[in-house]
Design goal:
Elements: E1 28-32, E2 36-39, E3 44-46, E4 63-69, E5 76-82, E6 89-95, H1 108-120, E7 124-129, H2 140-157, E8 171-181, H3 183-195, E9 211-217, H4 228-232, H5 243-253, E10 283-288, H6 294-306, E11 311-316, H7 323-326, H8 332-347
Parallel strand pairs: 6-7, 6-8, 8-9, 9-10, 10-11
Antiparallel strand pairs: 1-2, 2-3, 4-5, 5-7
Helix pairs in contact: 2-3
Length: 349
Amino acid sequence: MRRRKMGALPQLSESRSSFQPSKDHGPVIEEIQGLIKVCKDGHVERLPAVVDVPCTWAPEPDVASKDVAVGHGGLWARLYVPRVQTQKLPLLVYFHGGGFCVGSAAWRCYHEFLARVASQAACVVLSVNYRLAPEHRLPAAYEDGLAAVRWVRQQASHRTADEPGWWLAHCDFARVFLGGDSAGAAIAYNVAAQLGSFGVPESALLKPGCLRGMVLIQPFFGGVARTSSEKNLVQSSRSALSLTTSDCYWRLALPPGADRDHPWCNPLAKGSPKLEDLRLPPALVCISELDILRDRNMEFCKAMRSAGKSVEQATYAGVGHAFQVLHNYHMSHARTTEMLTHIRAFIYS
């Protein structure tokens, strides 16, 4: 089967006038060029910015991949399992990026990246294909993340040797990590926060000792007050995230009428759960020097440390948002190799 070669995404910038109004669905009221447009009647159209690939396509020959149903309701995930193991491997439950509005576990860029993570970080990866906004606004993605963790716990408790359970024998369920990039990192954090909040029945979720850490790559948090990097970092045509694009994603993802200081957007805002009150696992936070989210990510790390949480912070010079999947900077390959080294060291620390 011939597959389209994937290059960097087109410039992602908000524009409300590049599409003509649809006679069937009314005028376009929100749009991110090349990715998504939303019409007045609620109709949503997502454009094929990145090609989907089947799980059988193997960019890393030493990694097997398979799609699995995760519970009920159509939730599914893509598994990546290194073919050769000398011991049971940690499990990384991963959530893709896309502003909560676009993206897929089947996107070629994520398939390639997560196959590399499984191979080079020596772990099993479960890439969750969660529901997207605006059809499913937050907290839908967070609920799907929690459902995926519940499913993992169920699988660990009822291990079978049949075909659906082939991957279970390769996992060390005492070493489970939550991870993701951009919106996916926000999902990983919010799921961990729910697992670590007071009043959550431990029996219904992973035991706290089994959740060993969070891998948060360029976490997509927001806030009403602008940070310096949001105000001053001019984004080139290679950038995957501009300020107007970020604002558009949040308008589509948050409940109607909510602003960017909603707890589902800004974990440091007044009204958000206090970090001191959460039982959070250690975190590796990966920050890009040229990302508009740089300062917000750094503020998050500082707040986590002030709350007594364990945080490792890695900053990647010369690259911007989503460089590890879009390869949209000349230093992307080198910095991705650095990131994979950091992820492996964190998982095995």
